[in-house]
Design brief:
about 100 residues; alpha+beta; two-stranded antiparallel ribbon
């Protein structure tokens, strides 16, 4: 299993899960109720996360990147960990670093 998406807003994560499952990709929601631990753990560790099987990871990333990209915006590469992120991501999905200019 690999983490394919995380966001502080559980509704956005739920919508991403629905999109993947609509396309036949099983997605597991983790940290659904972890917000109660906020203050005792790092905030990013309490965000809801979507995880998919290894075989579905690339297709899931592609679907989410396409669905979340705003027209006219560009993808970006994280300056901290080097991960490629879709334009809709305000924070690096891998390490949580902010997008350039954010």
């Amino acid at each position: 299993m690999k983490k394919v998406f995380t966001h502080q807003n559980p509704l956005i994560v739920g919508n991403a899960r629905n999109l993947l499952e609509e396309r036949g990709i099983a997605a597991e929601l983790r940290n659904e109720f972890a917000s109660s631990a906020m203050g005792e753990t790092a905030p990013l560790e309490t965000w809801p996360e979507l995880w998919v099987g290894d075989a579905d990871y690339e297709r899931a990333r592609e679907l989410l990147d396409t669905a979340l990209v705003e027209r006219g915006s560009a993808d970006w590469t994280c300056g901290r960990c080097g991960e490629a992120n879709g334009a809709a991501f305000e924070l690096c999905w891998q390490c949580g670093a902010p997008a350039p200019g954010a």
